[in-house]
Predict the structure.
Amino acid sequence: MTIRPPAVAGSFYEGTPERLRAQVARCFDENPRNAAKERFIGAVVPHAGLMYSGHVAAAFYEHAELPKRFIILCPNHTGAGHFAAIYREGAWRTPLGDVAVDTPLADALMKRTQLLAEDAKAHAREHSLEVQLPFLQQLLGDFTFVPICLGYPRYELCEEIGKAVADVIAASDGPIAILASSDLNHYENQQTTLRKDQLAIDAVLALDPRELWRVVEEEDISMCGFIPTTAMLIAARQLGATSAKLIKHATSGDVNGDYSAVVGYAAILVS
């Protein structure tokens, strides 16, 4: 079996099982406990180092009723590999163990759209999907997922992949959730970032993928995961989503006290 080794253990998150479990637990401790979990179709979850955005990601994972199968869409920060890269088989490793790739689900997606290509290069050094796994491992133990890395800024690509995701989920037995891994605006001051973040958040809350695409382009919002977020919204709408909820919004400045050049993070649940 092919194992994708961790690329950012020891940097984006702690590199040993004991320290990583404690780090994830601290992220959850920064949020109120939520006993009444909420079902969802899709979500936006941030992906910076856990020391910065982990508390925002944990707010979503604490709030959501999590299934055992996921399609996780992420951006391509490295530029390597195919523009719509799917990891089809094997497992991904973190210090908390191995997570199996859902091969039947990956195959169903590849049958539905020819845009997706099996390609490990795009995923090899990509952090934005990997950092979601420790949260799910800590909460669920066993689960399966399909990793998809998107790096081509064309709305038509998002439309085809989003519709393929929706079709495959609709035809599947049991729940499958869609996670879009994305941070928001990057490296501007707090005031500018909060304004730009809110424009993107408002478009997601309106379940409007075209508006998200428009504001990111026209307002120069450096939202690294706007492509996967757009595809998630298209899929969620086709699957009957009617509402979205902002769970938490913060910036890196809230952690390190430097508000001169911050990165925005949001956790949004789509149902």
